[in-house]
Every structure is written in C-alpha cells, then in structure tokens.
Amino acid sequence: MHVAIAGNIGSGKTTLTKMLVNKYGWIPQFESVEGNPYLEDYYADMNRWSFNLQVYFLSKRFRDVVEISQSNNWIIQDRTIFEDARIFAPNLHSMGLMSDRDFKNYSELFDLMISLVKLPDLLIYIKSTIPNLVNQIQKRGRDYEKSIRINYLQGLNDLYEGWIADYKGRIVVIDGDTCKFESNPEHFKMVTDQIEAVFPELK
Questions:
Q1: pLDDT below 70 — which residues of the chain?
Q2: For residues 135 and 59, what is the distance between their CA atoms, to the nearest angstrom?
Q3: Nearest to 68 by CA among 26, 38, 100, 104
Q4: What would the DSSP string read from start to end of 145-194?
Q5: Active site residue: 64, 78, 84, 102, which one?
Q6: pTM higher than 0.85, yes or no?
Q7: What is the pLDDT of residues 183-192, one digit of tens each?
Q8: Which CATH class is domain 2-202?
Q9: 3-class SS at 6?
Q10: Radius of gyration of the chain (CA)
Q11: Alpha carbon distance, N-terminus to C-terminus of the chain
Q12: What is the DSSP string of 16-43?
C-alpha cells in the first residue's frame, strides 16, 4: 500500500510521517531536504534557481514512486510528485519566479512522467493557515527558510485548496491548526482512527 502525506511548508508532514512509521512499521520515503544541492540557493534567489530545484525534486520523487510501484510493502511518502507539478511549479510561474519557457518544459516533463504513475492508495492532507505555518517554520529554525515570503506561502495554500477540491483518490484531511497530533496523543488517535477507517486491517 502507498500512503502519502501532503501539505504546505511547515504543516507537519515529516513529523506525522515519523509517527505513523513508529505506529505501523511502514517504510518511509522522506522529502529530499538534507543534501539537496539547490535548496539554499533557491531561497536566496528563487528566480534563478526555481527550475533547477523543481526538476531536482521531480527526478527524486519520480524515482520514489517507481520504487513504490515495485514494492509489496506498506510505504508512506512525505510529499507527493503531484504537489511539485500542481502546487509548487505553478506558484513559482504565477509569481514570475519561473519563466514561461521553463514552466512549459517542466510541465511537459511532468506530463510524461505522470502517465506512468498512479494515485496513492490514501492521501493524508494537512490543512493549515498561514500564521500556523509561519509559527512552525520559525520553530524548526532552518536558516534557508527565514527568507520565505508570506505571499509565497499564501500562493501555495491557495493552490493546495484547489488541488484537494478536485482530488479523485481516497483522502483524509487533517486540520493542522487544531489537531496537534505531534504533542497530543488523543489528537494523534483521531488521525489514526481515520486511517484505520480506510484500512480496517490496521486495527
């Protein structure tokens, strides 16, 4: 089974991934943050490095979904390939941080890849407001994230809402503002109860 966690920067995807791995023994696939050769440059100059970063993520994520498709294990993925192309790249393009030429090239590459990819068996979407995201980003204290602009996060949030509204697969939506799964065991149980309603064999 392929379970994926989606959500904006700072929404708690990695934290929830780790907690579900600990509970169910799933195999995790984390977002490529550590060792990413473009991330610091990207946050310092998004216009220059946006295409490079998005192609890097697309390549890594495509490799991940190919591995998932060939596995018989339960795998949980921290962010999906769909978010790269439906959320992050369009946001950069709409803000003028990715050129028309680069966005067209990127989109054509994604369309080719996605013809070989199916939706996760379950998508868990962590929905958060901008103030909550900013608070979470500040708490984790990554230097390269200090330059993230509010309008950039808001653009991502708007695109997430549109994508989720049209999503065709099985989905669980978590309110990241009120569901403090990372610190409240009862809230975490609320999350796992929703997952087990989809997969009764996990009970």
A1: 32-34, 144, 147
A2: 30
A3: 26
A4: GTT--HHHHHHHHHHHHHHHHT--S-EEEEETTT--TTT-HHHHHHHHHH
A5: 78
A6: yes
A7: 999 999 999 9
A8: alpha beta
A9: strand
A10: 17
A11: 15
A12: HHHHHHHHH-PEEE--S-TT-SSHHHHH
Query: Is there a contact between 183 and 31 (Cβ–Cβ < 8 Å)?
Result: no
DSSP result, 70-107: T--S-EEEES-HHHIIIIIHHHHHHTTSS-HHHHHHHH
Q: Give the span between the Cα atoms of 120 and 172, in whole angstroms.
A: 12
Length of the chain: 203
**Alpha-carbon span 17 to 29, nearest angstrom:** 9
| CA distance linking residue 68 with residue 78, whole number of Å | 13
Distance CA 58, CA 47 (A): 18
Please give the helix or strand (H or E) that residue 121 lies within, else none. Answer: none
Instruction: Give CA 58 to chain center in angstroms.
Output: 12
At position 62, the amino acid (one-letter code) is: F
Looking up tokens 């602009």 gives: 149
Say which residue the tokens 């939506």 belong to. 173
Is there a catalytic annotation at residue 78? yes
